[in-house]
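Sharing a chain and its predicted structure for anyone who wants a worked example. Both blocks are below, sequence first, tokens second.
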Amino acid sequence: MRFFGEVDLPKYDATIDQYNYYYYLVGNIESKNTDTDTPKQILFDLISVIQQRFEELSLKEKIAFVQSLIQSAEAQLYSENPRVQSLIQDFGFDGAQYVPGEREDFVEVVHTSIGGNKSDYYINERLQHYTNIHEDGSLQDMLTIVRQHNWTELEKERWESYTNIDLDQRTDLRFVFGDAENVSYTRVYLPK
């Protein structure tokens, strides 16, 4: 949204921008408050406008846009041509997981939300890793994972202002939007 600017969607009485798109899209889709049988119609309408704006860009602007997506890992590249795919991999544009070298280490923490809501959006996570080297040369690693849910009354007010929904009346939506316990499975991947 930052790249394409504001998008007016008069059908929804909304102007979507980089700051409010999440609230408008999730709010309209989850509340099913539209006059259509397709709750995700607002998403289709927004994509249509963005596609049109993309087509109007110069080649230089298109390349800059795609480059920004790749650099931020929002998009990856793939080619069926082995030589092109090799080049894509060499530049790290394929989205592949980093494979550590022989004398390297890694840790990967993966969360899967199973609560049926958007509460991950409000979770801050902090990882602390310590390695103790004992006198005999052995290593002891300790990893602490701290996750904090940051939904506040301000978030409720923000949702209400963008969706025109009273969340005190629609507690089901409050749950979906993120004011709920964050239930997730956590898996920690370590080297063998």
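Comments welcome. DSSP finds six helices and six strands in the chain.
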